[in-house]
Write a structure and sequence with these properties.
Number of helices: 12
Number of strands: 20
Distance between the termini: 26 Å
Shape: globular
CATH class of the domain at 177-400: Alpha Beta
Radius of gyration: 21 Å
Bound molecules: flavin-adenine dinucleotide
Largest sheet: 8 strands, antiparallel
Length: 430
Amino acid sequence: MGRMISWGNYPQHDHTKKSFEVNKLSSNFAINSIPFGNGRSYGDSCVSDHLIDIKQYNHFLSFDEETGVLVTQSGVLLDEIINTFLPKGWFLKVNPGTKFITVGGAIASDIHGKNHHIEGCFSESVNWFSLLLPSGEIKKCSREENTELFRATCGGMGLTGIIMDVEMQLKKINSKSIYQTTRKTKNLKETFEVFEHIQEEPYSVAWIDCLAKGKSVGKSLIMYGDFMDDGDLIYEPKEKMNVPIFFPSFILNTLSVKLFNYLYYRKVSKKITKQKVGFDKFFFPLDSIANWNRIYGKKGFTQYQFILPKENSFHGLKEILQEIEASGKGSFLAVLKLYGKSNENYLSFPLEGYSLALDFKIEKGIFELLEKLDTIVVKYKGRIYLSKDVRVSKATFEKGYPNIEKFREIRKKYNLKELLTSLQSKRVEI
Ligand SMILES: Cc1cc2nc3c(=O)[nH]c(=O)nc-3n(C[C@H](O)[C@H](O)[C@H](O)COP(=O)(O)OP(=O)(O)OC[C@H]3O[C@@H](n4cnc5c(N)ncnc54)[C@H](O)[C@@H]3O)c2cc1C
């Protein structure tokens, strides 16, 4: 029995954890089990009574140095792929904000990175994967073969079976560094103008001051850039700082968030700054502090990430930022990004528009605030990201995901409903 398993440290749920057994395939599934990667999802998508631990299923199977095609077992971490293949001039096509996730977790969340507007989701770099069903059958899934299982599994939060082996395409690079531009904006209008202007840039993201008021609502630092071409591929991971214990939760309050936001925005003195940065700093800044999730205290935290269609984004975001500012419940982390077109997977999160991700500690009044934000998200035809979520209602979820019935049909067709469940799948009834 164990407790505390996902990144937000909330909710705590008694569970058993058993390593994935390759020799007795169907014995992996008990009633109410779910595949478990590296527990970097924030909420309850990887929380269930029985966890099937995939992390030991972690060998590279083949790599073609000419084409960059990698075949790997799904428990391999993105970090291991980078460490092994960066020196050979290959990198992942899609990188989330942490490299400590498994390939299986990347597919199950159909993750996106700072280049969604150019490269799409992680599944877009996947040629095929094998999927173990509770019946013990293994299906090869691709866009051409078992298409419906492919579309349901990418973004399907582990609810369609165990992703085993994966063939994926890596991206050619010729540097470990990024040439980064940082632009400071003074309000949401200017932030949107800059995003529209830099759509050709391969990677872009913004930090937004979510406690800014009045005319300053939406003031941001927008970071964008691309890999350099200096031939320097020598890489040694740096030592990390660590947060050894849970902080007392009072340390994080409106005042400390305000102070952080003030200093962070002020730190960039010029309107436009250009600099060379390592890929770790650019893609994975939070990874430099191990266990940073402990700063939110023992009660844990949640990340609220939503996306709104582009035509509704400006008004919707403004309303949401005003609601947050009025509540006084700010977030250090407030990441804004313009996404490209959606793909055909049934539950993939991205659609063409703006997404905002915010971290909130679990405290009195927080769920009431998030429900208010939900009504604004629904009003502007947006959706919530399941990988971060721990509390969205069935009604709000369904309004955001019009392909949910197709997903439910697959769960029924392959008899998945009893065996593969998470607290989240039960809550939103998928
Ligand atoms: C600091 C930080 C930054 C992040 N930034 C981003 C970001 O920029 N973009 C983004 O999209 N996400 C981001 N995330 C979320 C993270 O990428 C996803 O939650 C990812 O799915 C976590 O992978 P994991 O291996 O830890 O899986 P877990 O958290 O263990 O599981 C996540 C889901 O994947 C399923 N799963 C895991 N392995 C398998 C398998 N082999 N077969 C079938 N299902 C499986 C689980 O059942 C569960 O539903 C971030 C998370 C953190 C902590």
